[in-house]
Amino acid sequence: MKLNIGPDAAPERGLFNDNERRRMLMLCGLLVVVGTVFVISLKKQSAGPPNDEIVEHAPVVVVDTPKVDVAKLDALAGDATPEARVLIAPAALDATFQVARLLTPQHYAPMGGRELDRAAAAELLSDPAPRRGQLFRVRGWIEAFQPFDSVGGSTAHYRGRLRAEDGTQAYFAVLAVKDLRGAVGEFAVIDGLFLENHRQQGPDGWIDAPLLVGPSLTLSFPELDPVTELDRDAFLGVTDDSATSITGQPFHEYWKLVSYAQHLGEFDWSKAPVLDETSYADLREHGDQWRARAVRIPASELMDIWNQAQKENPLRLATMTEGWLGNWSWIRHGTGLVRFVAPFTNQDLHRKDIAEARGFFLKQSAYEMRDGNIGVVPLFVLASIEGYTPREDNTWTIVLAVVGGSLAVFGVLVGLALLRDRRKARALRNELVRRRRARRAQLQQS
Hints:
The structure is a single chain. Residues 1-15 and 42-47 have low confidence and may be disordered. The longest helix has 51 residues, at 395-445. Helix content is 30%, strand content 28%. It has three domains: 70-219, CATH 2.40.50.140; 232-387, CATH 2.40.50.140; 391-446. The protein has nine helices and eleven strands. By secondary structure, the protein is of the alpha+beta class.
């Protein structure tokens, strides 16, 4: 009987056994899961919460400045002598009103507006001609106020006199007044074109002062002294908004907090809590306990940021930075957003930047969402906001190292499995050869 026991007779074996195949499949599956989780986490961290609810945005203002015919005003003005200053020529006033009625607060900077202080008033009184038609702003207490009806085709208007906080006096002629209440004794502001120097009899004698012609006289506020110490008890009257109860922005408390943030000196921010998921939830739940407290806002995405022109305010701030920050760690306890204002002008940060901020919580503030519903977010007055530069990110290097190492291990395992299979196959061939030789020797002996 001829036995086919040559090398080709070795039985076919798979490259790996069942246990090995299962291990390798598990390893491949683990690599896929790790990669997927990493990509998803990167995508999630690359953006803040969705900002579809936000309806506020940076306004775009285009200012077209009115033209002032300085020569015409100089020809019509009559202030060359003290006697001439007592009367105001209707033609001069009407010519100035034609330009003044076009003025808005947005024209102040483009037209080179100046504050009317003692020095500016002295310039106008000493040499008025080259300064006619220049724009000035003055705030002060109303010392005299009188309406003037239209006579002989002249424009109906209001006249009076202001005394500024530094004692500077100015006469005014305006087309309209806005919420002046009792008028005399009220604090008001006017942006007006200088027409001429005027003279009237005052309680203590004749008063010579510049005459400003403007569109309106508006209620204003005496300047607030810098707030350098914060009394949290002064904020006990502030209440949080809700979807059903909107109390609005508390005027005095708001500007005190803005002033404190503006004039903040040395401050130990290390003691201020970080606005993480836990503190955000507690702030939303117990706003009274957080009122006027210092808070550190961690690296978050700027959902929007802009420089906002301000209405009349006791800090004399013309522009403030406003915006929204979003953070995924807050999303479980609301919209994942905070709103902020800051008493400075932003130059460097843009929407979608990552920023860190330090500031003070004022209240839960209501706002209108795109769908018309009312949302509520924390409102902070910031002392600072800076772009966040993360430390050198070695994540991809680590991931590639892990993947490469895993593939290397996988290759080693495959190699070891191949070597083991070869050893087993060689051992099997040797055993078959030994048996064949033993059988031949046995047949030869028989």
